[in-house]
Amino acid sequence: MRLHRIKYLRLSLQEAEGRVEKKTSHDVFDAVFCDEPTDNAANRAGLEKLFRYIQGGDTVVVDSMASLSSSTEQLCTLIRQLIEKQVTLELLNENLVFRHDDLEVVRPIISVMEALAEFERAVAREKQAAGIAAAKNRGSYSGRKKKLSDNQVVSLIDRACAGESKSKLARDFDISRQTLYRYLKST
To answer: Residue 26 — very low, low, confident or very high, per pLDDT cuts 50/70/90?
Structure first.
């Protein structure tokens, strides 16, 4: 089993590309993977390369949870993926170590973090609902703007009743088939 120490970092907006070596010079790493601050959760080439590189027994070192993930839910998923690959994760700022060989300690911590992630989502939904209700009371909330005008809806329904292809209608009106069926169902 190999025992590599691997650094993953996500540069902040203030850091220049040339500072990667400076940030990692105090410790020796077998590999360093980096993502730019503009990379979003779906496009993180450095993290993808890291997951292709790591093997059982490796240790991944990350400066902070925020560098690894932008949400608690995503962080829990990444930790679970690392543990499944039998990789240890060190989070330096938080002074946390998730060891793949110490699952009786790691699993309860991840469970608590997942419960907190669910709590965060519930609070966000409540705040959003309260904000929408307040905006409706003020009369300043009208919901999402309709994709089609009333005249377009009438034309859409007429053409659909005439037997025109649903796919062609969706393309002609630049709407998804799901939206098309929603308009047809509302009649």
So the answer is: low
